[in-house]
Amino acid sequence: MASNNQNPRVLSGMRPTGQLHLGNYHGALKNWVDLQYQYECYFFVADWHALTTGYEDTSRIGAHVWEMVIDWLGAGLNPGACTLFIQSRVPEHAELHLLLSMMTPLGWLERVPTYKDQQEQLREKDLATYGFLGYPLLQSADILLYQPKFVPVGEDQVAHVEITREVARRFNHLYGREPEFEAKVERAIKQMGSKQGALYRSLRKAYQEQGDGESLKQAQALVDSHHHLVLADRERLIGYLDGAGRVILPEPEVLLTATPKVPGLDGRKMSKSYGNTIGLREDPDEVTQKLKTMQTDPARARRTDPGDPAKCPVFDLHRIYSSAETQTWAAQGCRSAGIGCLECKKPVIDAVVTEIRGIRDRAREYEENPELVRGIISEGCEKARDVARETLDEVRSAMGLEYR
Length: 404
Ligand code: TRP
Ligand code: SF4
Known about the structure:
Layout lengths: L8 E6 L7 H14 L4 E6 L1 H8 L6 H15 L7 E4 L5 H10 L4 H5 L2 H9 L8 H4 L1 H10 L5 E4 L4 H18 L5 H11 L2 H17 L2 H13 L5 H11 L11 E4 L27 H9 L20 H9 L2 H12 L5 H28 L1 H29 L6
Parallel strand pairs: 1-2, 2-3, 4-5
Helix pairs in contact: 3-17, 4-8, 4-18, 8-9, 10-13, 11-12, 12-13, 14-17, 15-17
The protein binds tryptophan and iron/sulfur cluster.
Iron/sulfur cluster binds next to helix 15, helix 16 and helix 17.
């Protein structure tokens, strides 16, 4: 695994939905900004993924891509600290997707929970397509190309990382046989000593022939206890137990993003399709106006009616933006009708507007200078391609496809 950086690698992607809102920010982007200084991060615009559900009208994709990249930069992604790129500019994603598709059982894709759910939710679209079924596998290719240790995603994407791990395991199983693997395993078994070697063989046999999980565990423990063996031999002996070989595509781990509930202006989840959003680069006066008229606990029809913060979307914003003291002040004032809703909203409005001002200020330079943004992305695509090419070379060679 080539890396010019000591930190573990992280990869994540986002569909280009145009201008981002506070829901996108607190659900993913803000976390990325934090991660860029702790890991070697690759973040990409999943523009091909946008086609899996939006293939009919592609006229806005380009605009959406650039708007989103400007939001990323405005939010604080620093091109000096992380690599930003666009999926379709690294065609290796398509090649790995194709190669993986040859060995991915159809049932794995049909069983991904989002497959049926999304088809039902987006009934107005015809999603009985090849591309839509294959989209989790495209995501697997996105991930495995970069051999990341971690993939930061929200709960809704965990199943996709899970299938990615299964695909990697299957790939390694099929193509991870190094030359002389069996001979190397035999030599390692000899080094265990004749008694222990024989025990290893019989435990392996019990596991492989009777599926005896207890024998597998005992055999693994036995191998682990042989500290005098070099690590590579211990890995071979472990791999040999269940028929695996060398690891070409390492299995990534989910880095679960803690996603606070971000309410929209109408109290439902903030979402572009509900039209209830606050944009990351929206005009502060408009943001203030929107928040002033934001839904509160309907029980507080009059100023003198007490309310319940648990039933108020504004209070969910307090949870994100306010200190513990301010939250206590708001909750008590609400329950006792000691404060009015506008008064309660004031600290939230201030905090949101301050955040948005910061993002707007950072974004301005990029809005005014599209070439600067193009340059950052071009550089990121080059860098991503170097990594992707390297993985793909290994993949082709493991599959016996490097003939020319
Ligand atoms: N499917 C993700 C989403 O809809 C976006 C995505 C595509 C992604 N490829 C990825 C996320 C690879 C993480 C890693 O949000
Ligand atoms: Fe919501 Fe605050 Fe009004 Fe209570 S006082 S209903 S928490 S806005």
